[in-house]
Amino acid sequence: MLEKMKHKRLSYAQYMELVLYDEQYGYYMKKREKIGRAGDFITTSNVANVIGHVFANLFIRLIETYDVPPHVCEIGGGTGRFAYAVLDQWQRQSPKTFSNGRYTIVEASPYHCEKQVEMLASFADHVHIVSNLTELPSSFSGIVFSNELFDAFPVHVVEKRNGQIYECFVAVEGDKLVEQYAPLENEEIAQYLAERNIDLVDGQRFEVPLAMKTFIFQLNDAIERAIIFTVDYGYTDEEWKHPLRRQGSLRGYYHHQLINDPLRYPGDMDITTHVQWDALRFYGEQVGWTFTHLWRQDEFLLKAGIFNQLIDHDDPDPFSEKSRYNRAIRSLVMSDIGSAFQVMVQQKKMNIPILT
């Protein structure tokens, strides 16, 4: 990895693209467990099958009540566990709409594609796995869902010093990675800061999600009509101004440990940053999407009827499958994980009440 970077100065976005997505070195591209106890992090969609069941109920209501086309597109499907939970619930609860239903996963990781094929083998007739948005069926209409997608997108990093904006870079010195700084010259970054009215204070670092901005335009080109669900962790414009966030949010996760230095364990560590929710709304509105709402995840799940998923049982064993399932439900609305995540809903050429 270091050999490939020698004699180069990479922007943080280029560095993240290399260590996360490079075919040879990229963390997400390697054939190894990343999600769950054996990996480096846990996603909320992998907490039992609860999240999948709750969203399946919502998707079914939208399809049955509002004639939303029965086509779900999940972007970044991970192991396929969320898709399995949705498809299983959909088949049992609404067999008529399921018979005409399609579930497309957009997945760049060959390793995760293999996992998804294995996980979803029983639903093979309804599942289509593609590597990028251009492979979606033409004029896609339906439901778009992602969970912890944008937090893994490459970002540029800037810092204000003595009244001037600098871009932060990554370089190799000897046998280690170091940061370097140069006055901002990237016009796309400058445009982002200007159009988003980003005003930094001295000493403040800030992540610039140009890849997310580009992706929104690409997704818009790939869909005709859709309800777009984005589940992730992030902050609004007001929240990122808080003094506690002046060092930015770029960090790593390695064997379930939070690593504040994103230059450690290159290629062997997940790197993530908090999503800028107002940027997602802003660029969505630029391409014509209507903003519906931004909920805290626990609030969203309660409104979506998560407690209806509780299973009645008399099993005293706290480690039984039913007990674990009920405990997972409570953890999603009563623990920190419920308040740390948010759910944003946007719509393209639709105007449908989501939680009524």
TrEMBL record:
Gene3D superfamilies reported for this sequence: 3.40.50.12710
Coiled coil start-end: none
Keywords: Methyltransferase, Transferase
Pfam families: Methyltransf_28 (PF02636)
Any one GO MF annotation of this record: protein-arginine omega-N symmetric methyltransferase activity
Alphabetical GO biological process terms: methylation
InterPro entries: NDUFAF7, NDUFAF7_sf, SAM-dependent_MTases_sf
PANTHER family per record: PROTEIN ARGININE METHYLTRANSFERASE NDUFAF7, MITOCHONDRIAL
Protein name, entry field: SAM-dependent methyltransferase, MidA family
Native species: Anoxybacillus pushchinoensis
